[in-house]
UniProtKB/TrEMBL annotation:
InterPro entries: Thiolase, Thiolase-like, Thiolase_C, Thiolase_CS, Thiolase_N. The active site is at C89, H336, C366. Belongs to the thiolase-like superfamily. Thiolase family. Pfam families: Thiolase_C, Thiolase_N. GO terms for molecular function: acetyl-CoA C-acetyltransferase activity. This is Acetyl-CoA C-acetyltransferase. The keyword Isomerase does not apply. It comes from the Bacteria. The keyword Transferase applies. Its EC number is 2.3.1.9. Keywords: Acyltransferase, Transferase. Residues 5-249 form the Thiolase N-terminal domain.
Amino acid sequence: MAEAYIVGAVRTPVGTRKGALAAVHPADLGAHVLKELMERTGVDPSAVEDVVMGCVTQAGPQALDLARTAWLSAGLPESVPGVTIDRQCGSSQQAVHFAAQGVMSGTQDLVVASGVENMGMVPMGANAQFALDNGLPLYGEGWTERYGTQEISQFRGAQLMCEKWGFTREQLEEFSLESHRRAARALEAGYFDDQIAPLAGVTRDEGVRPDTTLEKMAALKPLREGWALTAAVASQVSVGAGALLIASERAVKQHNLTPLARIVQLSLVGDDPVYMLTAPIPATRIALEKAGLGIDDIDVTEINEAFAPVPMSWIQELGADPAKVNPNGGAIALGHPLGATGAILMTKLVNELHRTGGRYGLQTMCEGGGQANVTVIERV
């Protein structure tokens, strides 16, 4: 099987839902990173064979095949097609998988994997609102026969995880505080500077709260009475975009590219859709086994902090070193622009491996429907 390489990776800053980036049209957010990716890699954009873009809430300004409109909005060649995909929070990580699979199959040589989400302009769930507004069920008869009419939500899933693993509110808040500390340290040290393409006057991630404390977190109300969850231990509503260029060995030579990382393993797993957020655990086990690696071989892990119990349970079940997991903070501090997060985390992962000299990196995240992607890469 042919090899697939990451030869470029760039992202916007992750903005808050009321920050300057929230006023930027999603197609222009995507256009910004796509144009920057082409400029940084020096590739003739007409050589790109497809643009695969993740976006979760494909409604309003994020409808009409955002991948295509973003590419054209960037002034890039009309000859290059684009497709927009939705694997919930893992959408742009799946974009990386599709791009890499196209290259590894030998049918493509240069594919862009990207993701965009403006949660300030297009609220989460806006694409489901039509059903709610018109009295239509979100789930059909087959689903109801199998799972009943119980609540299916990320919030309930996260609370169920707290109960299953016995996590207390205090433990969740301690994890959250550490996420902010790590992110603040990374921002201060400039770890993200080279990977960010500033936009709308925003030059750095906006969500980090370096002055937060356990006392401030303890004053927040739980999401529901009796729950361990508060807003402080959940990912932030955000705005952002990211893009990577995936190349074959032939394209690397033809276009004189410098590989940043080699794709080692691409895995997908489904798990309980009611718990919803637990799939990264079995998915990681399968990915490591297929890659012939152990958890101790992984130098850096990026696991999306949708809610604190997701990485906390993953660390516990995998026996991972917490110091290697989200070393520069996660979505609790840095934000989670849904369909863009996969591309953003992969950009961070590649850069962190090069900064530290690590060999193997692993990325995973929980996804709606009880799914998870796992990507293992090797620094080149």
